[in-house]
Design brief:
By secondary structure, the protein is an alpha+beta fold. The chain is built from six helices and six strands, in the order E-E-E-E-E-H-H-E-H-H-H-H. About 45% of the residues lie in helices and about 20% in strands.
């Protein structure tokens, strides 16, 4: 690493510490020639995750966009923001783990719906009604039947 003061190509690390939830390392360095101290940051370079939309257009995966959809679905429901942020984190982690740099928007939507079904059934139905674009009440009823079949023990307790 070159010293920003004298351009000497030799520095030593004086101190290292993790930052940004262990995603980065902050290093204090000292030039071996002039003694100048400076800070560098090191972090893993993540490949962009591209979402291929229904119309064929592509856009970068947005945690914020997924979180906004979850917040909207969970409006006035007893679901904390921490839980929703955890869902977004898990979805992104699962998509990145697949190793495919491009994912279909349908895959993202299905992952969101699967997580919501386990968290809050009302939020699940709200999200599904927008995501699946229910055309009429019969499609809506079919979705509710699928939800009841998915969670058979919940029928008696509600």
């Amino acid at each position: 690493m070159k010293c920003p003061a004298c351009q000497h190509n030799g520095t030593r690390v004086v101190d290292s510490r993790p930052i940004d939830e262990m995603k980065s390392i902050r290093r204090r360095r000292e030039c071996e020639a002039c003694g100048y101290r400076f800070t560098t940051f090191e972090k893993v370079e993540e490949m962009p995750l591209i979402v291929v939309k229904k119309d064929g257009s592509r856009e970068e995966f947005s945690r914020e966009k997924v979180l906004r959809g979850l917040i909207r679905a969970c409006e006035k429901r007893p679901v904390s923001l921490d839980v929703l942020e955890g869902v977004v984190f898990d979805i992104e982690k699962e998509l990145r783990r697949s190793g495919n740099p491009e994912v279909k928007s349908e895959e993202v939507g299905e992952l969101v719906m699967n997580r919501l079904a386990d968290i809050d059934e009302v939020a699940y139905v709200r999200f599904a009604s927008v995501y699946r674009q229910f055309k009429d009440i019969t499609v809506f009823i079919d979705e509710l039947k699928d939800l009841l079949d998915r969670n058979p023990g919940d029928k008696d307790s509600k």
